Amino acid sequence: MSSSSTKTDVKSVIVIGAGMIGLATAWHLRKSGVEVTVVDKKGVAAGSSWGNAGWLTPALTLPLGEPSVLLSAPKTMLSSKSPLYIPLRFDLKLIRFLTGFAWHSLPRQWRKSMEIFAKVNPLGMPEFHELTDGGVKAPVKEAKPFLAGFLSEKDRKVLLHEFEVVEASGDKVSFDLVTGDELRQIEPTLSDAVSCGVLLHGQYFINPPKYMESLGDAVAKLGATLKSGFDAAAIDDTAKGVIVKATNGDALEADAVVIATGAWLGELARKFGVKAIVQAGRGYSFSVVPEVVPSHPIYFPAQRLACTPLGDRLRIGGMMEFRSVDAAPDKRRFRTLVEAGKPVFKGVDWDARKEEWVGGRPVTADGHALIGATKNPRVFVGGGHGMWGIALGPLTGKLLAGAIVGEPDPVLKHFDPLR
User: Fold this and answer.
1) pTM as predicted
2) In the beta sheet, which residues pair with residue 228?
3) Which of 17, 230, 284, 358 fits 22 for a cystine, CB–CB 3.0-4.6 Å?
């Protein structure tokens, strides 16, 4: 692997991207005494770190590509009503990505991926607790319990099979099986159509906008500089370090640079030997105010519906749309979320939804992140987590900071950006 294995003399780093991974990396670098400047085209959490579900759920942090996708996706992926949607168009890069995605969805490859996730998932939550102890004030809440709901026993068996594979891979999942009535005793806003459920234990969640704002404040208080309105366009290597140039002609110089730009990662990283395609898997969300606002996160796996309480409202999210990250929102996708939500909830005015949002999750074909040094030892990347950039972001930041200061963790071998 290309990561440095000896102590380096990096005194200053530019982090491109003020999402979860960029800010977590900056936090750990400052803790190591490194001078840090975080730049972003818009500001803190302007991308997928803002509108996601905010789940910190080791039991559900699994590879996106899995065998059932191969069975269902070819029949449905061209329909805008499908949870997994691929607009029909000729795109050679997308074809290459989908070919690799299909390969890694085969049972044998999927189980290999599950083994990697089983090693990494237990490492994620301690890093959130470290950030809390280090000054991030926004709460990390334990879901007591985390709910999964189903319209049929057949649907529930699919999730239970995934848990069996998780446990066979060396991890553990703590859960109880319940009826629909028992779920409604916990969350009365669930409809009578929900026939059964699962109560997951040891899972957590955050309010993404508030958490990201708090993390940005903590990074600034540690002495890092946060610079918005800086649209990084190029990275040049020099004899002394790197120069990051913005589209408006501004430039910053440092000993090293971290590219943490989410679905745009490949635009800057390709020059430095990162050949893996980072495809935007766009997700959609909005908020509603049910008559009884839930207090627990709720997952409907069959509908791919992720629901998170944000205090006075409920965020409804989902979808995986392989389309250009910069494309305009597809209004049909919001309607698809509404149609998925209507059968499972009651007491919701779906026409009164607010905060409609679309963001591009950075997805790799093999389902694993890109973390570490590129072929240039001064240029590092962190991204490609798919749906799990929030859950694994603080861990990624710690791993990246360690690699930069010359203390790489052996777990990085699974996430080599040059693979």
Assistant:
1) 0.93
2) 40
3) 17
